Amino acid sequence: MLRVDQAGEYGAARIYSGQLAVMGNRHPDSTEIARMRAQEQHHLDVFNRMVVERGVRPTALAPFWHVAGYALGAATALMGPRAAMACTAAVETEIDRHYVEQAEALGDSDPELKARIEEFAEEEREHRATAIAHGAEQAPAYPLLSAAIRAGCRAAIAISKRI
Fold first, then answer.
1. How many CB atoms lie within 10 A of CB 27?
2. Is the distance from CB of 119 to CB of 47 less than 8 angstroms?
3. Backbone dihedral region of 27: left (phi > 0), alpha (psi from -120 to 50 degrees) or beta?
4. Which of 60, 67, 15, 77 is nearest to 41 (CA)?
5. Which of 4, 75, 91, 144 gets the highest tally of CB atoms within 10 A of its CB?
């Protein structure tokens, strides 16, 4: 679980970095994106610490997620601020689903990890709500864009569990 969560938070931070690289601070949504990126970085820092403390092997795909996350963020920002927010809404939808599944699977077996997952899931839901409030659903071809990004997230989760 930690390997996947660390990889996912790393990818999320890279998506926001790519969006900010394109949008800079010129757009009103940049402030929200920077705030969400800071939260994702905090999540990543916590999982980085837990991975080391527990001796969990990080995913071997970190270099790929480094590039892929940034590219997804930059590409959606190039499509416009609403597409950037559509990316956020799609990613956070899948991450929330993933965290809920993890919390259920953990039960009472690892209270520390479960507490972190539940805490971070709440912030991911808030990111999704922010994205929707900032026009995610008005992005060009939103249903197609959202479906493609969500499928990519599900694939990334599945791959990071194994590699």
1. 17
2. no
3. beta
4. 15
5. 91
CA end-to-end span of the chain: 12
Distance (Å, rounded) from C-alpha 149 to C-alpha 71? 12
**Domain 2-162, CATH 1.20.1260 — does that match?**
yes
Q: How far is CA 55 from CA 3, 50, 51, 71, 100, in A?
A: 10, 8, 6, 30, 24
Helix axis angle, 2-23 to 81-106, nearest 10°? 170
What is the per-residue pLDDT for 148?
95
Are the beta carbons of 124 and 92 closer than 8 angstroms? yes
C-alpha–C-alpha distance, residues 30 and 9, integer Å: 19
pLDDT tens for 70-117 read: 999 999 999 999 999 999 999 999 999 999 999 999 999 999 999 999
Regions of the chain where pLDDT drops below 50: none
Tokens coding 153: 């997230």
Q: Give the pair of three-digit tokens for residue 51.
A: 């991975």
Tell me the pTM.
0.88
**Burial class (CB within 10 angstroms; exposed 0-12, middle 13-18, buried 19+) of 155:** exposed
Residue pair 125/65 in contact by the 8 Å Cβ criterion: no
